[in-house]
Amino acid sequence: MNTMISIRTPDDWHVHLRDGAQLDQTVAATARCFERAIVMPNLVPPVCTVDAARQYRNRIRAAIPPGASFQPLMTCYLTDGTDAGEVAAGYSEGVFAACKLYPAHATTHADSGVTDVRRIHAVLATMERTGMPLLIHGEVTDADVDVFDREAVFIERVLSPIVRDFPALKVVLEHITTAEAVDFVRDSGSMVAATITPHHLVINRNAMFQRGLRPHAYCLPVAKRERHRLALRRAATSGLSKFFLGTDSAPHPRAMKESACGCAGIFNAPVAIEVYAQVFEEEGALDLLEAFASEYGPRFYGLAPNAGQISLMRTPWQVPDEIEVGGQAVVPFLAGETLTWQLATNHGLRAGQSGPPTI
Ligand SMILES: NC(=O)N[C@@H](CC(=O)O)C(=O)O
Ligand SMILES: [Zn+2]
Ligand SMILES: [Zn+2]
Which positions in this protein are listed as binding substrate (predicted)? Predict the structure, then answer.
């Protein structure tokens, strides 16, 4: 049994760092082990212009802990009115790494999202031509489609036509939650990939209803049946380069989660790499963790993998019950539970900054 694993420094290909007073903690929690991160643009108001992305990137950079090395990769929030020229300029200037498609009202702060993909065809054509990836929250929003079917129906009604109409467009189906998504991504060409979160590898939908209503297990897309979780675990640990790490760490203040209309989102940055390691070990695939966490993502985005390394020790530790983020309590994923692996060293951090994530 390994007592330590060292892997090339990983990246997080899907994270919500939020803004303002929250940045100090969210950036620290991600930068403690990830070298780069694809930063979601669903702020209020959303990040829709090159200028807004540049300013947001500056705020994130200002929040990087001293001595840490971290590179935020910015995304453009697509709306019905997105201008193809703005997107192309942001990409060529090295500000936008990708565009994000939220179907209007599909998730947290998706109110300005796209109402009909036909409205952004010119943008997608430009992205296809320039090699810019399209990142997708893949759920339909029709009231007559069951919440648990919204990803599968999206694949059928929206994603399949996008992939057919734009065969050379790089597409990442984000935070996949179903066997249908696994099958679709696996059976599509090399331009289609998916990110998988730690929480969807660990919980199924029962987690939301364990002896009561559990708002901290609620996120979108919502966790599905056990057979879907098992399909995700097989995909993540398959060694297929189409499936790579994206945490979807999405903090909401405790009071906003524990509410009559609780927010969707799970804050997992403080435990993410440790949970992935645990899952890969349980699946007998620790040797594939590095590829999933540190190689397949950069390969898909056309970037070099990181040069540094991180190490995890087999030193059980207890996840804090809550963590303060921007002056408000946030309950992290697996709060109060004991994890097997502990981050030991991050060669991007100065001595004294490693160890358990007491951010
Ligand atoms: N995943 C979530 O449940 N919430 C995310 C939005 C998203 O990624 O869909 C958030 O910003 O809170
Ligand atoms: Zn989403
Ligand atoms: Zn997200």
Answer: 16-18, 42, 137, 220, 252, 264
Under the banding of pLDDT at 50, 70 and 90, the label for residue 346 is low
Pull the structure tokens for residue 96. Answer: 């936008």
The reply to whether ligand 1 has any atom less than 6 angstroms from the CB of 42 is: yes
- Is position 230 annotated in a ligand binding site? no
151 lines ligand 1 (CB under 6 A): no
Asked if residue 291 belongs to a known ligand binding site, the reply is: no
The CATH code belonging to domain 4-346 is: 3.20.20.140
137 in ligand 1 pocket by Cβ < 6 Å? Answer: yes
DSSP state of 159: I
Q: Per DSSP, which regions of 104-150 are E strands?
A: 134-136
* Tokens matching residue 66: 């001293």
> What span, in angstroms and rounded, lies between the C-alpha atoms of 271 and 249?
10
Q: Is 187 a catalytic residue?
A: no
pLDDT in tens, 98-144: 999 999 999 999 999 999 999 999 999 999 999 999 999 999 999 99
Q: How far is the CA of 350 from the centre of ligand 1 (A)?
A: 31
The answer to whether 207 and 178 are in contact (CB under 8 A) is: no
Task: Choose which residue among 248, 252, 257, 325 to substitute to test ligand 1 binding: the one with the highest number of ligand atoms within 8 A of its C-beta.
Answer: 248
User: Rounded to whole angstroms, how far apart are CA atoms 273 and 265?
Assistant: 18
- pTM for this prediction: 0.96
